[in-house]
Amino acid sequence: MDMQVSELLVRFLERLGVRCIFGIPGSHILPVYDALYDSSIRTVLAKHEQAAAFMACGQAVHTGGIGACITTAGPGATNLVTGIANAYADSLPVIAITGEAPTYMFGKGGLQESSGEGGSVDQVALFAGITRYHKLVERTDYLASVLNQAARHLTSDRPGPVVLSLPFNLQKEKVDAEILERIGFGHRPNEPLVARHHVAQSLALVQQSRRPLVIAGHGCLRAGAGQALRRLSTRLNIPVTSSLKAKGAVDERSPLSLGSLGVTSGGHALRYLEREADLVLVLGASFNERTSYVWNKGLLAGKTVLQVDSDAQQLEKAFKADLAIQADLRAFLEDLDAAAEQQQVPAKEPVDVAAFVADVQTRMDGAGETIFNAQFDHVRALYRWLEQRFPDGLVMFDDNIVFAQNFYRVSDRDRFYPNTGISSLGRAVPAAIGARFATDFDAGRPVFAVIGDGGFQMCAMEVMTAVNYRLPLNILLLNNDTMGLIRKNQHQHYRDRFIDCDFVNPDYAALARAFGIGHVLVENGQDLDRAFDGLDFLQGINLVEVRIDQDAYPNYSSRR
Prior knowledge:
560 residues; alpha/beta; Rossmann fold; 6-stranded parallel β-sheet
């Protein structure tokens, strides 16, 4: 049976499991939009293409499936770049479909042409460095091969974004629907097997150690290894700290959790690593700039280091390990725990993590080394209120990072998505919207987008996307009338020579009224229950404005 390429492409997306696609239509992509009209895929009209890409990222990271976005040619495609780069940095399976001028116009200066011919924008070159696969499809005779490549990269061991650009006339050509039968949709990553001798070697290192410490990275979450990690940690009394991106790999409210490790953290886990640990189990952590304290060479000095990662490229990337193992993390931890149980390996001496943290905090307070002073007490109180108000968990997309990293103890019922990777401002709101569109979303957990006032002004109109689709969403807006990180760095390193960091904010209460959403102002931590009285965090759309002193700075240095 023959069908238009546009319809075949939509069928391809359906078979990939795409249930929602974010974007903005334009004349060069209308044949695909017309095919979407009769499909099972829900279309969502964003306010800007960059936000559409962030929405696709948010849906991909939250569901574990494939996120999708769609734009027209020229500026529609170029506006995707930052969001696609975000997907690339975070290894997210996101497919972007873009239109293109008809092939018979290539090189002639067609409207919004981006074929690279005749001096036009070269879209292939533009996306080359931020995609796993990108193709400008000029003919139908190799369409099956293109779609196979796209499917393979979206479902590979290390997925990433795919961009397919289709000229207007090609979208309307007829092809045999049998093409779909030649595409491999069933591929699943083949994780490396766990070798018995590696389990034995690892268990021997644990037995020989006095104070082992686990540093859990995002690889633990990707592998679904949280339960196995908690079981092993509890069995052997091994404290756990995590990278920022892995908050929640173990419940941070549990007795053996040291919270988060990294430059922007409070320092409790760092002190334990420095003073107590003799064996460090680095599990799925890449030791990036933040976690490694800007690649501090002394961080692991004198420690025995066991590193396990499913990605061979991460092994010993930043430091030398005594034992480096490529393996699926969940399988490795399950096998290690089973071996410890079978061999009746004794647990380590109990560690009173709470007492250790309290002692470290007291010493830091006395030395003036605490990361937050009393000016941030209302922010701390807000995050503790969220813990108490939503004990069954919440979903948080966090652009700000530093407050949640220190104040919010992520449980195993929460879903926490910090803005890592390329750390683009303006991501949290559209990414949270993308997650909210997931068809299997748990309605019992509210969604929060945490964002500064600078970042919010980059994506504020996407609030109307939530309003248009009646999509519950809570925005925690941290308002200090400045680009906080830039002002902090100019204060610490540039003698208060402030330039292009401060700005005037709108009246956010009036803006919320214009959007038709709820608004509340938080200026202190007293009586938060009364402040939030009347706000529906589960079904409403709310803007929670948190005022912060412009001259209040977290006490850490990123050395820039």
